Protein backbone atom coordinates (compact mmCIF):
# COMPACT_ATOMS: atom_id res chain seq x y z
CA UNK A 1 0.00 0.00 0.00
CA UNK A 2 2.90 2.29 0.77
CA UNK A 3 4.33 1.62 -2.67
CA UNK A 4 0.99 2.33 -4.28
CA UNK A 5 0.75 5.61 -2.36
CA UNK A 6 4.21 6.63 -3.55
CA UNK A 7 3.26 5.80 -7.14
CA UNK A 8 0.09 7.87 -6.83
CA UNK A 9 2.16 10.78 -5.51
CA UNK A 10 4.44 10.53 -8.53
CA UNK A 11 1.45 10.52 -10.87
CA UNK A 12 -0.07 13.56 -9.11
CA UNK A 13 3.26 15.37 -9.37
CA UNK A 14 3.52 14.53 -13.05
CA UNK A 15 0.07 15.87 -13.85
CA UNK A 16 0.37 18.98 -11.67
CA UNK A 17 3.43 20.12 -13.60
CA UNK A 18 2.85 22.92 -16.05
CA UNK A 19 2.24 21.77 -19.62
CA UNK A 20 1.89 18.03 -18.91
CA UNK A 21 -1.80 17.93 -19.83
CA UNK A 22 -1.13 19.90 -22.99
CA UNK A 23 1.61 17.47 -24.00
CA UNK A 24 -0.80 14.54 -23.78
CA UNK A 25 -3.39 16.35 -25.88
CA UNK A 26 -0.74 17.43 -28.40
CA UNK A 27 0.50 13.84 -28.62
CA UNK A 28 -2.98 12.43 -29.24
CA UNK A 29 -3.98 15.13 -31.75
CA UNK A 30 -0.76 14.69 -33.71
CA UNK A 31 -1.08 10.89 -33.65
CA UNK A 32 -4.57 11.13 -35.08
CA UNK A 33 -3.47 13.48 -37.86
CA UNK A 34 -0.45 11.41 -38.86
CA UNK A 35 -1.94 7.93 -38.69
CA UNK A 36 -2.10 7.41 -42.47
CA UNK A 37 1.21 9.10 -43.14
CA UNK A 38 2.81 6.66 -40.71
CA UNK A 39 1.08 3.76 -42.41
CA UNK A 40 2.18 4.72 -45.90
CA UNK A 41 5.61 3.11 -45.56
CA UNK A 42 4.13 -0.02 -43.95
CA UNK A 43 1.59 -0.41 -46.76
CA UNK A 44 4.46 -0.31 -49.26
CA UNK A 45 6.40 -2.81 -47.14
CA UNK A 46 3.38 -5.13 -46.96
CA UNK A 47 2.82 -5.05 -50.74
CA UNK A 48 6.46 -5.69 -51.57
CA UNK A 49 6.85 -8.39 -48.93
CA UNK A 50 3.64 -10.16 -49.96
CA UNK A 51 4.98 -10.31 -53.52
CA UNK A 52 8.42 -11.70 -52.63
CA UNK A 53 7.69 -13.70 -49.46
CA UNK A 54 4.88 -15.68 -47.82
CA UNK A 55 1.85 -13.41 -48.38
CA UNK A 56 -0.35 -15.05 -45.74
CA UNK A 57 2.01 -14.46 -42.83
CA UNK A 58 2.91 -10.97 -44.07
CA UNK A 59 -0.69 -9.84 -44.45
CA UNK A 60 -1.64 -11.37 -41.09
CA UNK A 61 1.08 -9.46 -39.24
CA UNK A 62 0.37 -6.25 -41.14
CA UNK A 63 -3.30 -6.62 -40.17
CA UNK A 64 -2.26 -6.58 -36.51
CA UNK A 65 -0.34 -3.34 -37.16
CA UNK A 66 -3.49 -1.79 -38.66
CA UNK A 67 -5.55 -2.89 -35.64
CA UNK A 68 -3.13 -1.08 -33.29
CA UNK A 69 -3.51 2.06 -35.40
CA UNK A 70 -7.29 1.89 -34.96
CA UNK A 71 -6.77 1.60 -31.20
CA UNK A 72 -4.66 4.79 -31.24
CA UNK A 73 -7.23 6.65 -33.32
CA UNK A 74 -10.05 5.51 -31.04
CA UNK A 75 -8.14 6.70 -27.97
CA UNK A 76 -7.51 10.08 -29.63
CA UNK A 77 -11.24 10.54 -30.32
CA UNK A 78 -12.19 9.59 -26.75
CA UNK A 79 -9.56 11.91 -25.28
CA UNK A 80 -10.86 14.93 -27.24
CA UNK A 81 -13.54 15.51 -24.58
CA UNK A 82 -10.94 15.67 -21.80
CA UNK A 83 -10.46 19.25 -20.62
CA UNK A 84 -6.94 18.54 -19.32
CA UNK A 85 -7.84 19.30 -15.70
CA UNK A 86 -8.82 15.98 -14.09
CA UNK A 87 -5.61 14.06 -13.22
CA UNK A 88 -7.55 10.80 -12.74
CA UNK A 89 -8.72 10.84 -16.36
CA UNK A 90 -5.24 11.93 -17.38
CA UNK A 91 -3.66 8.94 -15.65
CA UNK A 92 -6.11 6.58 -17.37
CA UNK A 93 -5.34 8.14 -20.76
CA UNK A 94 -1.59 7.92 -20.16
CA UNK A 95 -1.87 4.23 -19.19
CA UNK A 96 -3.81 3.54 -22.38
CA UNK A 97 -1.24 5.48 -24.42
CA UNK A 98 1.55 3.36 -22.92
CA UNK A 99 -0.40 0.15 -23.55
CA UNK A 100 -1.18 1.12 -27.14
CA UNK A 101 2.46 2.11 -27.66
CA UNK A 102 3.64 -1.33 -26.56
CA UNK A 103 1.08 -3.08 -28.77
CA UNK A 104 1.89 -0.89 -31.78
CA UNK A 105 5.68 -1.13 -31.42
CA UNK A 106 5.59 -4.91 -30.86
CA UNK A 107 3.28 -5.40 -33.87
CA UNK A 108 5.55 -3.29 -36.08
CA UNK A 109 8.64 -5.15 -34.90
CA UNK A 110 6.97 -8.53 -35.44
CA UNK A 111 5.96 -7.51 -38.95
CA UNK A 112 9.47 -6.30 -39.84
CA UNK A 113 11.24 -9.22 -38.14
CA UNK A 114 9.08 -11.64 -40.16
CA UNK A 115 10.36 -9.97 -43.33
CA UNK A 116 13.94 -10.38 -42.07
CA UNK A 117 13.39 -14.05 -41.18
CA UNK A 118 11.95 -14.86 -44.59
CA UNK A 119 14.78 -13.06 -46.38
CA UNK A 120 17.55 -15.69 -46.46
CA UNK A 121 20.10 -13.86 -48.61
CA UNK A 122 21.17 -10.35 -49.54
CA UNK A 123 21.23 -8.86 -46.08
CA UNK A 124 18.25 -7.18 -44.47
CA UNK A 125 18.23 -3.76 -46.08
CA UNK A 126 14.48 -3.72 -46.63
CA UNK A 127 13.48 -4.70 -43.09
CA UNK A 128 16.14 -2.45 -41.53
CA UNK A 129 15.06 0.48 -43.69
CA UNK A 130 11.42 0.21 -42.61
CA UNK A 131 12.39 -0.20 -38.95
CA UNK A 132 14.68 2.83 -39.25
CA UNK A 133 11.89 4.89 -40.86
CA UNK A 134 9.53 3.91 -38.01
CA UNK A 135 12.17 5.03 -35.48
CA UNK A 136 12.72 8.34 -37.25
CA UNK A 137 8.98 8.95 -37.41
CA UNK A 138 8.67 8.28 -33.67
CA UNK A 139 11.60 10.59 -32.89
CA UNK A 140 10.09 13.41 -34.96
CA UNK A 141 6.48 13.20 -33.79
CA UNK A 142 6.51 11.64 -30.31
CA UNK A 143 8.77 14.20 -28.63
CA UNK A 144 5.89 15.57 -26.55
CA UNK A 145 6.17 12.62 -24.13
CA UNK A 146 9.70 11.42 -23.50
CA UNK A 147 8.57 8.34 -21.56
CA UNK A 148 6.38 7.10 -24.41
CA UNK A 149 9.12 7.88 -26.92
CA UNK A 150 11.70 5.90 -24.92
CA UNK A 151 9.26 3.01 -24.57
CA UNK A 152 8.62 2.81 -28.32
CA UNK A 153 12.28 3.22 -29.28
CA UNK A 154 13.32 0.57 -26.74
CA UNK A 155 11.05 -1.96 -28.45
CA UNK A 156 12.37 -0.89 -31.85
CA UNK A 157 15.92 -1.31 -30.50
CA UNK A 158 15.10 -4.92 -29.60
CA UNK A 159 13.96 -5.39 -33.20
CA UNK A 160 17.20 -3.87 -34.51
CA UNK A 161 19.32 -6.12 -32.29
CA UNK A 162 17.29 -9.23 -33.22
CA UNK A 163 17.84 -8.57 -36.93
CA UNK A 164 21.52 -7.79 -36.28
CA UNK A 165 22.07 -11.15 -34.59
CA UNK A 166 19.84 -13.11 -36.99
CA UNK A 167 22.47 -13.91 -39.62
CA UNK A 168 25.21 -14.25 -37.01
CA UNK A 169 23.20 -17.03 -35.36
CA UNK A 170 22.31 -18.54 -38.73
CA UNK A 171 25.76 -18.65 -40.29
CA UNK A 172 28.28 -18.15 -37.42
CA UNK A 173 30.47 -16.06 -39.76
CA UNK A 174 34.12 -15.06 -39.35
CA UNK A 175 34.78 -11.61 -37.88
CA UNK A 176 35.87 -10.30 -41.28
CA UNK A 177 32.57 -11.34 -42.84
CA UNK A 178 30.19 -8.66 -44.26
CA UNK A 179 27.59 -10.03 -41.84
CA UNK A 180 29.59 -8.64 -38.93
CA UNK A 181 29.96 -5.35 -40.81
CA UNK A 182 26.19 -5.20 -41.08
CA UNK A 183 25.92 -5.97 -37.35
CA UNK A 184 28.21 -3.08 -36.36
CA UNK A 185 26.41 -0.77 -38.80
CA UNK A 186 23.10 -1.58 -37.12
CA UNK A 187 24.58 -0.79 -33.70
CA UNK A 188 25.82 2.56 -35.07
CA UNK A 189 22.34 3.28 -36.45
CA UNK A 190 20.88 2.62 -32.99
CA UNK A 191 23.13 5.29 -31.47
CA UNK A 192 22.19 7.66 -34.29
CA UNK A 193 18.46 7.14 -33.65
CA UNK A 194 18.97 7.74 -29.92
CA UNK A 195 20.93 10.95 -30.51
CA UNK A 196 18.40 12.20 -33.05
CA UNK A 197 15.51 11.49 -30.67
CA UNK A 198 17.24 13.43 -27.90
CA UNK A 199 17.73 16.36 -30.30
CA UNK A 200 14.04 16.42 -31.26
CA UNK A 201 13.03 16.21 -27.59
CA UNK A 202 15.29 19.13 -26.64
CA UNK A 203 13.93 21.19 -29.54
CA UNK A 204 10.39 20.46 -28.38
CA UNK A 205 11.27 21.52 -24.83
CA UNK A 206 12.78 24.74 -26.19
CA UNK A 207 9.64 25.42 -28.20
CA UNK A 208 7.48 24.90 -25.11
CA UNK A 209 9.64 27.32 -23.16
CA UNK A 210 9.45 29.89 -25.93
CA UNK A 211 5.68 29.48 -26.16
CA UNK A 212 5.35 30.06 -22.41
CA UNK A 213 7.42 33.23 -22.72
CA UNK A 214 5.34 34.42 -25.69
CA UNK A 215 2.07 33.69 -23.88
CA UNK A 216 3.30 35.53 -20.78
CA UNK A 217 4.35 38.52 -22.89
CA UNK A 218 1.01 38.40 -24.67
CA UNK A 219 -0.87 38.47 -21.36
CA UNK A 220 1.22 41.41 -20.17
CA UNK A 221 0.71 43.24 -23.47
CA UNK A 222 -3.05 42.71 -23.30
CA UNK A 223 -3.13 43.94 -19.71
CA UNK A 224 -1.08 47.01 -20.64
CA UNK A 225 -3.31 47.71 -23.65
CA UNK A 226 -6.45 47.36 -21.54
CA UNK A 227 -5.00 49.70 -18.89
CA UNK A 228 -4.00 52.21 -21.55
CA UNK A 229 -7.42 52.09 -23.22
CA UNK A 230 -9.17 52.49 -19.89
CA UNK A 231 -6.91 55.39 -18.97
CA UNK A 232 -7.52 57.16 -22.29
CA UNK A 233 -11.26 56.60 -22.09
CA UNK A 234 -11.47 57.85 -18.49
CA UNK A 235 -9.23 60.87 -18.96
CA UNK A 236 -10.84 61.83 -22.26
CA UNK A 237 -14.36 61.65 -20.84
CA UNK A 238 -13.33 63.59 -17.76
CA UNK A 239 -11.67 66.30 -19.85
CA UNK A 240 -14.34 66.62 -22.52
CA UNK A 241 -17.11 68.00 -20.27
CA UNK A 242 -15.16 70.87 -18.63
CA UNK A 243 -13.38 71.62 -21.93
CA UNK A 244 -16.74 71.99 -23.70
CA UNK A 245 -17.74 74.53 -21.06
CA UNK A 246 -14.44 76.40 -21.46
CA UNK A 247 -14.80 76.56 -25.26
CA UNK A 248 -18.41 77.72 -24.98
CA UNK A 249 -17.49 80.42 -22.49
CA UNK A 250 -14.57 81.67 -24.58
CA UNK A 251 -16.75 81.84 -27.69
CA UNK A 252 -19.35 83.85 -25.80
CA UNK A 253 -16.72 86.24 -24.54
CA UNK A 254 -15.06 86.58 -27.97
CA UNK A 255 -18.48 87.06 -29.58
CA UNK A 256 -19.23 90.08 -27.41
CA UNK A 257 -21.96 88.47 -25.34
CA UNK A 258 -20.60 90.24 -22.24
CA UNK A 259 -19.69 93.50 -23.90
CA UNK A 260 -16.98 94.78 -26.19
CA UNK A 261 -13.53 93.40 -25.36
CA UNK A 262 -10.52 95.66 -24.91
CA UNK A 263 -8.07 95.38 -27.83
CA UNK A 264 -5.33 94.01 -25.56
CA UNK A 265 -7.60 91.25 -24.24
CA UNK A 266 -8.79 89.95 -27.63
CA UNK A 267 -5.58 88.24 -28.92
CA UNK A 268 -4.90 86.08 -25.83
CA UNK A 269 -8.57 85.06 -25.64
CA UNK A 270 -8.59 84.08 -29.31
CA UNK A 271 -5.42 82.03 -28.74
CA UNK A 272 -7.08 80.35 -25.77
CA UNK A 273 -10.19 79.52 -27.80
CA UNK A 274 -8.13 78.19 -30.72
CA UNK A 275 -6.00 75.96 -28.49
CA UNK A 276 -9.08 74.77 -26.61
CA UNK A 277 -10.65 73.65 -29.88
CA UNK A 278 -7.40 71.91 -30.81
CA UNK A 279 -7.41 70.12 -27.45
CA UNK A 280 -11.06 69.12 -27.97
CA UNK A 281 -10.13 67.66 -31.36
CA UNK A 282 -7.31 65.69 -29.75
CA UNK A 283 -9.68 64.29 -27.14
CA UNK A 284 -12.20 63.24 -29.80
CA UNK A 285 -9.43 61.55 -31.78
CA UNK A 286 -8.18 59.75 -28.68
CA UNK A 287 -11.67 58.50 -27.94
CA UNK A 288 -12.10 57.25 -31.51
CA UNK A 289 -8.72 55.52 -31.42
CA UNK A 290 -9.56 53.88 -28.11
CA UNK A 291 -12.91 52.65 -29.47
CA UNK A 292 -11.26 51.17 -32.56
CA UNK A 293 -8.53 49.41 -30.58
CA UNK A 294 -11.04 48.05 -28.06
CA UNK A 295 -13.40 46.86 -30.81
CA UNK A 296 -16.15 49.14 -29.48
CA UNK A 297 -16.71 51.25 -32.58
CA UNK A 298 -20.03 50.19 -34.08
CA UNK A 299 -20.78 50.69 -37.78
CA UNK A 300 -24.30 51.04 -39.18
CA UNK A 301 -24.05 49.81 -42.77
CA UNK A 302 -26.55 51.07 -45.35
CA UNK A 303 -26.54 51.87 -49.07
CA UNK A 304 -25.08 55.36 -49.58
CA UNK A 305 -24.81 57.49 -52.70
CA UNK A 306 -21.18 58.60 -52.93
CA UNK A 307 -22.13 61.87 -54.68
CA UNK A 308 -24.47 62.82 -51.85
CA UNK A 309 -21.85 61.80 -49.30
CA UNK A 310 -19.25 64.09 -50.88
CA UNK A 311 -21.66 67.04 -51.03
CA UNK A 312 -22.51 66.61 -47.34
CA UNK A 313 -18.85 66.54 -46.38
CA UNK A 314 -18.09 69.63 -48.47
CA UNK A 315 -20.99 71.49 -46.87
CA UNK A 316 -19.64 70.59 -43.45
CA UNK A 317 -16.20 72.08 -44.28
CA UNK A 318 -17.46 75.05 -46.32
CA UNK A 319 -16.87 77.51 -43.51
CA UNK A 320 -13.27 76.34 -43.05
CA UNK A 321 -12.64 76.56 -46.82
CA UNK A 322 -14.11 80.07 -46.96
CA UNK A 323 -11.97 81.18 -44.03
CA UNK A 324 -8.82 79.97 -45.83
CA UNK A 325 -10.04 81.46 -49.17
CA UNK A 326 -9.77 78.12 -50.95
CA UNK A 327 -12.14 77.00 -53.70
CA UNK A 328 -13.60 73.49 -53.60
CA UNK A 329 -14.64 71.95 -56.92
CA UNK A 330 -16.83 68.85 -57.10
CA UNK A 331 -16.75 66.47 -60.06
CA UNK A 332 -19.65 64.07 -59.44
CA UNK A 333 -20.12 60.65 -60.99
CA UNK A 334 -22.86 60.34 -63.62
CA UNK A 335 -23.21 56.58 -63.11
CA UNK A 336 -24.59 54.66 -60.16
CA UNK A 337 -22.16 55.39 -57.31
CA UNK A 338 -23.74 53.64 -54.38
CA UNK A 339 -21.56 52.03 -51.73
CA UNK A 340 -22.21 50.22 -48.45
CA UNK A 341 -21.13 52.06 -45.34
CA UNK A 342 -21.78 53.98 -42.18
CA UNK A 343 -22.69 57.53 -43.23
CA UNK A 344 -21.45 59.27 -40.10
CA UNK A 345 -18.10 57.47 -40.12
CA UNK A 346 -17.58 58.08 -43.83
CA UNK A 347 -18.39 61.77 -43.34
CA UNK A 348 -15.67 61.73 -40.67
CA UNK A 349 -13.27 60.18 -43.20
CA UNK A 350 -14.02 62.78 -45.87
CA UNK A 351 -13.91 65.63 -43.37
CA UNK A 352 -10.43 64.55 -42.29
CA UNK A 353 -9.22 64.30 -45.89
CA UNK A 354 -10.82 67.61 -46.87
CA UNK A 355 -9.46 69.40 -43.81
CA UNK A 356 -5.95 68.16 -44.61
CA UNK A 357 -6.27 69.23 -48.24
CA UNK A 358 -7.51 72.68 -47.21
CA UNK A 359 -4.96 73.41 -44.51
CA UNK A 360 -2.02 72.34 -46.69
CA UNK A 361 -3.18 74.42 -49.66
CA UNK A 362 -2.09 77.94 -50.47
CA UNK A 363 -4.50 80.85 -50.06
CA UNK A 364 -6.62 81.20 -53.17
CA UNK A 365 -5.87 77.62 -54.21
CA UNK A 366 -8.24 74.89 -55.35
CA UNK A 367 -9.25 71.52 -53.92
CA UNK A 368 -10.94 69.12 -56.34
CA UNK A 369 -13.16 66.27 -55.17
CA UNK A 370 -14.04 63.56 -57.70
CA UNK A 371 -16.38 60.58 -57.60
CA UNK A 372 -15.61 57.93 -60.23
CA UNK A 373 -17.16 54.56 -61.01
CA UNK A 374 -15.46 51.53 -62.55
CA UNK A 375 -17.04 48.14 -63.20
CA UNK A 376 -16.75 47.02 -59.58
CA UNK A 377 -15.56 50.00 -57.52
CA UNK A 378 -16.39 53.56 -56.59
CA UNK A 379 -13.43 55.87 -56.05
CA UNK A 380 -13.50 59.18 -54.20
CA UNK A 381 -10.42 61.32 -54.75
CA UNK A 382 -9.47 64.59 -53.05
CA UNK A 383 -6.81 66.58 -54.88
CA UNK A 384 -5.04 69.68 -53.55
CA UNK A 385 -2.39 72.05 -54.87
CA UNK A 386 -0.45 72.24 -51.65
CA UNK A 387 2.98 71.41 -50.33
CA UNK A 388 3.05 67.77 -51.36
CA UNK A 389 4.37 64.76 -49.47
CA UNK A 390 7.96 63.45 -49.64
CA UNK A 391 8.61 59.97 -51.06
CA UNK A 392 8.52 56.94 -48.74
CA UNK A 393 6.52 58.85 -46.12
CA UNK A 394 3.46 56.58 -46.04
CA UNK A 395 4.27 55.23 -42.58
CA UNK A 396 4.36 58.76 -41.18
CA UNK A 397 1.27 59.84 -43.14
CA UNK A 398 -0.93 57.06 -41.69
CA UNK A 399 0.93 56.51 -38.41
CA UNK A 400 -0.23 57.36 -34.90
CA UNK A 401 0.83 60.72 -33.47
CA UNK A 402 2.97 61.37 -36.51
CA UNK A 403 3.03 64.07 -39.16
CA UNK A 404 5.01 64.44 -42.34
CA UNK A 405 6.28 67.81 -41.10
CA UNK A 406 7.12 67.08 -37.46
CA UNK A 407 9.38 70.10 -36.98
CA UNK A 408 8.78 72.78 -34.38
CA UNK A 409 8.07 75.33 -37.13
CA UNK A 410 5.57 73.33 -39.19
CA UNK A 411 2.94 75.40 -40.99
CA UNK A 412 -0.13 73.63 -39.66
CA UNK A 413 -0.94 71.87 -36.45
CA UNK A 414 -2.81 68.67 -35.75
CA UNK A 415 -3.07 65.69 -33.45
CA UNK A 416 -1.27 63.24 -35.74
CA UNK A 417 -4.20 60.83 -35.35
CA UNK A 418 -6.66 61.94 -38.04
CA UNK A 419 -5.30 59.95 -40.96
CA UNK A 420 -4.58 56.89 -38.81
CA UNK A 421 -8.21 56.85 -37.66
CA UNK A 422 -9.33 57.53 -41.23
CA UNK A 423 -7.37 54.54 -42.51
CA UNK A 424 -8.81 52.22 -39.88
CA UNK A 425 -12.38 53.33 -40.59
CA UNK A 426 -11.81 52.86 -44.33
CA UNK A 427 -10.39 49.37 -43.82
CA UNK A 428 -13.42 48.37 -41.74
CA UNK A 429 -15.50 49.21 -44.79
CA UNK A 430 -13.41 46.69 -46.79
CA UNK A 431 -12.11 49.68 -48.70
CA UNK A 432 -8.61 51.00 -49.38
CA UNK A 433 -6.98 54.39 -48.99
CA UNK A 434 -3.83 55.58 -50.75
CA UNK A 435 -2.29 58.74 -52.13
CA UNK A 436 -0.13 60.18 -54.88
CA UNK A 437 1.96 63.27 -54.27
CA UNK A 438 4.70 65.47 -55.66
CA UNK A 439 6.55 68.05 -53.61
CA UNK A 440 5.53 71.58 -54.52
CA UNK A 441 2.72 70.37 -56.78
CA UNK A 442 0.16 68.81 -54.46
CA UNK A 443 -1.34 65.54 -53.26
CA UNK A 444 -4.30 63.35 -54.19
CA UNK A 445 -5.83 60.95 -51.69
CA UNK A 446 -7.95 58.06 -52.99
CA UNK A 447 -10.57 56.04 -51.16
CA UNK A 448 -11.78 53.03 -53.16
CA UNK A 449 -14.97 51.16 -52.19
CA UNK A 450 -16.69 48.11 -53.61
CA UNK A 451 -19.58 49.32 -55.75
CA UNK A 452 -23.00 48.35 -54.49
CA UNK A 453 -25.06 46.56 -57.14
CA UNK A 454 -28.82 46.34 -57.43
CA UNK A 455 -28.67 42.62 -56.61
CA UNK A 456 -26.86 43.31 -53.37
CA UNK A 457 -29.54 45.74 -52.27
CA UNK A 458 -32.42 43.50 -53.30
CA UNK A 459 -30.99 40.46 -51.52
CA UNK A 460 -30.48 42.52 -48.37
CA UNK A 461 -26.99 41.12 -47.84
CA UNK A 462 -26.01 44.04 -45.65
CA UNK A 463 -25.92 43.52 -41.93
CA UNK A 464 -27.57 46.71 -40.62
CA UNK A 465 -25.50 46.65 -37.45
CA UNK A 466 -21.91 45.42 -37.58
CA UNK A 467 -19.42 45.66 -34.74
CA UNK A 468 -15.75 45.05 -35.55
CA UNK A 469 -13.22 43.62 -33.11
Q: How would you describe what is shown here?
A:
The protein is α+β, with helices and mostly antiparallel strands and 469 residues long. It folds into 2 domains: 171 residues; 170 residues, Heat Shock Protein 90 (2-Layer Sandwich). The chain is 65% helix and 10% strand. The chain is built from 15 helices and 9 strands. A 5-stranded mixed beta sheet has the order 3-5-6-8-7, covered by helices on one side. A two-stranded antiparallel ribbon has the order 1-9. The chain has a two-stranded antiparallel ribbon with strand order 2-4. Strand 5 and strand 6 form a beta hairpin. Helix 9 packs parallel to helix 14. The longest helix has 77 residues.
Radius of gyration: 37 Å
Largest sheet descriptor? 5 strands, mixed
Query: How much of the residues is beta strand, in percent?
Result: 5-15%
The overall number of domains is 2
Would you tell me the structural class of the helices and strands? alpha+beta
Q: In which order are the strands of the major sheet placed?
A: 3-5-6-8-7
Oligomeric state: single chain
Specify the overall morphology: elongated
Strand count? 9
Q: For the terminal residues, how far apart are their CA atoms?
A: 56 Å
Walk me through the topology:
Elements: H1 2-16, H2 20-33, H3 35-52, H4 55-79, H5 87-118, H6 125-141, H7 146-171, H8 178-254, H9 266-294, E1 298-299, E2 302-305, H10 306-316, H11 318-324, E3 327-331, E4 338-341, H12 343-359, E5 366-373, E6 377-383, H13 394-397, H14 418-427, E7 432-438, E8 442-450, H15 454-458, E9 466-467
Parallel strand pairs: 3-5
Antiparallel strand pairs: 1-9, 2-4, 5-6, 6-8, 7-8
Helix pairs in contact: 2-4, 3-4, 3-6, 4-5, 5-6, 5-7, 6-7, 6-8, 7-8, 8-9, 9-14, 10-12, 12-14
Amino acid sequence: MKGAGSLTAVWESWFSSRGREQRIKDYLILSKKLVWRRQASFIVAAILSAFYFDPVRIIFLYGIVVITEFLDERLARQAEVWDGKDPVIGRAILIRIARNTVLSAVAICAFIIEIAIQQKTGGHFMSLFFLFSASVFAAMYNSQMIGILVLRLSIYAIGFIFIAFLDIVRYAPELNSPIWLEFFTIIFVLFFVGDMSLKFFRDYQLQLKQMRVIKAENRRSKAALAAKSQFLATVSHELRTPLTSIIGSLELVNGGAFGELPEKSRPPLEIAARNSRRLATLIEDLLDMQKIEAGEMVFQFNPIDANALVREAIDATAGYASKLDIHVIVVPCRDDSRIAGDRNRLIQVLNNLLSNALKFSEKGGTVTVRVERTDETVRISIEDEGLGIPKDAEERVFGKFSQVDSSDVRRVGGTGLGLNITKQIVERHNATISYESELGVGSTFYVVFDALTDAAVEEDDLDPLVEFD
